[in-house]
Amino acid sequence: MAGEGDQDHAHDGEASVPPRPCPVCGKPAVFAARPFCSNRCADVDLHRWLRGAYALPAADDDEPPLEADAKDRGE
């Protein structure tokens, strides 16, 4: 019986925190699709990841190699 009361209190803290906005459309997030507002927005975000929209551009390496690196490679 004590376990049932513990479960009720575990969800009380979540209800008191205001929901964050959906990162795709800005609507309030719902618990079932957290952090999104719907499964549609979750799918939109997944598509963006798979397409590479969130990829960071590679930095150009304009610096010459360090002396230690050149010695390790036998240069």
TrEMBL record:
Hydrolase listed as a keyword: no
Q: Where does Zn(2+) bind?
A: C22, C25, C37, C41
Q: Which cofactor does it need?
A: Zn(2+)
Tell whether Zinc is among the UniProt keywords: yes
Q: Where is this region: Disordered?
A: 1-21, 56-75
Question: What SUPFAM superfamilies does the annotation carry?
Answer: Glucocorticoid receptor-like (DNA-binding domain) (SSF57716)
InterPro entries, from UniProt? DNA_gyrase_inhibitor_YacG, Znf_NHR/GATA
Give the cofactor binding note: Binds 1 zinc ion.
**UniProt KW keywords:** Metal-binding, Zinc
Outline what the protein does.
Inhibits all the catalytic activities of DNA gyrase by preventing its interaction with DNA. Acts by binding directly to the C-terminal domain of GyrB, which probably disrupts DNA binding by the gyrase.
Q: What is this protein called?
A: DNA gyrase inhibitor YacG
This protein's species is Methylocapsa palsarum
Q: What is the lineage of its organism?
A: Bacteria, Pseudomonadati, Pseudomonadota, Alphaproteobacteria, Hyphomicrobiales
